[in-house]
Here is the input.
Amino acid sequence: MMESSQLNDAQLKYFQTLVAEETGMRLAAGKRNLVVSRLSKRLRELELDNFSAYISLVSSAAGLVEKQTVIDLLTTNETYFFREQPHFDFLKKLAIQRENKGGPLRVWSAACSSGQEAFSIAMVLHDCLGTRPWEIVGSDISLNIVNKAKAGVYPLAEKEKIPPEYLKSYCLRGTGKQEGKLQVCKELRDRVSFRHESLLDVRARQPAYDIIFLRNVLIYFDAIKKQELVRQVITSLRSGGYLLVGHSESLSGDNPDLRTLAPSIYQKK
Ligand SMILES: C[S@@+](CC[C@H](N)C(=O)[O-])C[C@H]1O[C@@H](n2cnc3c(N)ncnc32)[C@H](O)[C@@H]1O
Here is the structure.
């Protein structure tokens, strides 16, 4: 493990700028130890002795792929099934209301990390709506994590967070090489699509979604970026649709197009 003194101020600034430009996230100066601990393993893999050599590589013409690796390593991907249960109770209520009304229910798990959030949504929707139309898209800026989401394979210990009846209906226990793991069943995996993309991608979006989960990602943005990101994301939300943020996050009057329904639950006007 490298010492934090081996990453000087200018080098720390380089990674802060890279992360800010690629993701919009603010990596505070106090995160020097985090940057060192997450990147030093990579330096060892590449047999590089110091951060100066690594920065030369990342900033070279050939460094595009390595830039993605830096993003993969410096984003915080903590997540788990049924995180913040009240949001799933709310989702269930909406799904039941939707049961007898025509159109598909469309949900976006924005900044989905390794997919547990999107699959928790899928379990609720399959339970309430079965084969009636519903769609879930998950997206994240970390390529590595999006690939994990697509596989839908998790350590078996994560089953503790899944309600027993859902575990029985929607998860398979790994055997042989997959011993100690669980996989979300194919039927749900086929109904959730995952994309590698940034929330800050500025492009024309259709107000297609009924519900957007944008949880535990806003905390990494400063106030101005956070506002910009929410404005951008809700262009994909239909009028009357819902935006859910993490329980410790708040939009407190940030956006005139949203009304607060409950703490962490907003409705687009
Ligand atoms: C802490 S996880 C939250 C996962 C999940 N939403 C939850 O609440 O459990 C934050 C995720 O945001 C992603 N992220 C950060 N900046 C992003 C951006 N600009 N666009 C898309 N995803 C981003 C990270 O890669 C990470 O997987």
Notes: The longest helix spans residues 9-23. The longest strand covers residues 237-245. The mean pLDDT is 93.
